[in-house]
Structure formats: structure tokens, C-alpha cells
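Example record for the data management plan.
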Amino acid sequence: MRVRERPGWPATAAVVGGGRMGSGIAEAFAAAGVTVRLADATPELARAARERVIARARSHAEGGLVDPEAVRRAESVEACSELADAVGGAELVLEAVAENVEVKHEVLRACEQAAAAQTVIATNTSSLSVDELASALQRRERFLGMHWFNPPEWTPGVEVVPIEATGPAVVERVVEFLRALGKFPSVVGAGVGFVANRLQSALLCEAVRCVEEGVATPAEVDQVVRSCFGFRLPFFGPFQIADMAGLDVYAAVLEQHRDALGDRFFVPETLRRLVAAGRTGTSAGAGFYSYGDGEPESILRERDERYAALAELLERLPPQRFEPGS
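Corresponding structural encoding:
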């Protein structure tokens, strides 16, 4: 996170809910020069949230992670005694209260009542149905999900989750704003878990099974993830990685997993069709993606360059300071 030029929109944003996520998002907004107002369940909680934003920015500056200007901008965050004071006049309202439908409905209704007609209202829910949350609102064309990840000031990805009623211009404006913050927004569907949490949940469930079955300890599983397939993930997603490895290889491996571990592993029909059609990945010129002349070689060369740079970086970094169980 670095200090940035103020985006064209919004000039003022309200963050409702100043916990771990809300305070981190407020810090990211403030670092971009956005005027930020914080509201919480009580004036005391709002003031505490503001102090948390400032303390985080100071800690980051002391560690050399951000420019000292970020502290001054964090200090400009305003703690509001009333939700209406925070929301009134804000062009963007981000709700980040507890993951409870009734609580969010109450807060969202209050936000809409206090907000101007053109204000965009977003929810930071990570697990609740955005469609269900929208049922509390009248102006649903100005509503969407904006799912940040912990810690929000550093994690670049944000899932933008429109509902059917959300206006395309609203989605475009939110995506443009997030890019101005240095984030990497992805517009995804409103299904349970969106994309990231569906993938994370599947990984955690299988990691726990590895431990329960005595295959490895939690520390060993974490080491495998960090140093094997996790090593690739800063640069390539699962479809690109599969294309480079070969979809026929993946299909065979999944069949072996299903034979040994049961129906939670299977070859998806899409993967079967691609392999049957000869679209087995970069080596065949097509897989999940299609590749033009020379593209497979270029992608593999880029892969090697990026992996080599990351390996060099990891060698230079000091050992992890936190050792579980120590």
C-alpha cells in the first residue's frame, strides 16, 4: 500500500463497522486521499476504530512499509457519533458489520435512509447472500458486494459482486475506484462463497483431512502449500497452471485420486471434453485457454523468469519470525 493520487470518485466514503476489516479498508481509502468517515454501533466504538486506523498506519510507517504521508492521511479519518453523520454526503458507503443477516439488514436500511439517492452502497460480506442482503433496500441498482480480504490494506484482490439489479455503470465505477487504490478487482457472481472462499474452503477441508488421516502435520501441510503449488499462485491461477502442466495429466491424476479417496475427487465434464478434443494445454496450443503462434513458448519463458525471481527473493528474506508451537 502506498500513498496515491486521489481518485476521481468518491471524494468522500463512509465505512460502517470499524473492526479488523473496516479499519483496514478505511486505512486503504484514506491512503488514496479519500475523505473517510467511520461509524460503528456506538460513538465510543467509532472513536476506537479511528484510533485503530491511525495506530495501524503509524506501525506501517515505522516499519518502513508506507510513506509517512499515509499517517497524516489516516489522522484525517473522522469518527462519527451517528451513522447518519457518516453516510450523509458520502458518495460510497461500505458496510462492514458482523456477518449476521438481521444485523446487516438493519444497518443497510439505515444507510439507505441517510444516503443521497445516487450514493453507492456496498457490503463487505464474505459468506452471506448478496441477493438476500439486497432485499433490505429499495434502491438496489446502487447496491453490490465488495469483498475485501484480510489484511485489506495489503491484499490486492477484491471481489466485486453485483446482483441482477445492480447498474452496469455502478459496477464500472467501483472497479475503476479499486484499481485507483492499486487493487485487482474481479467481478464475480453472487453465489455462496463467490470464488475465493469456495476455493479456500475446499483447500482447508482437504488440508484438515490430510492431518486427520496422519498424512502430515499442520506445519508440514503449510510447508507443502507454501513451497509447492503455492509458489506458483502469485503469478498464475489454476487454469493457467493446469494448461502448462497438461490437462491430460490432470485428468489422470484426478481419476487416481477418486479411486483412492472417493467421490469428492472427480474429473469435471469440462475437463473430459477438452482432453477428448485434444485441447490438453500449452503443448497442444489450446486448453482452457487458446494460444496463438509462439504464445506457449513465451508463457513458459515468462513463467521461468517469474519463478526464478521469486525464488531469489525468498532466499533473501529472513526466516519466518513466527514459528507455530514454539
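Summary line stored alongside the record: The chain has 14 helices and eight strands.
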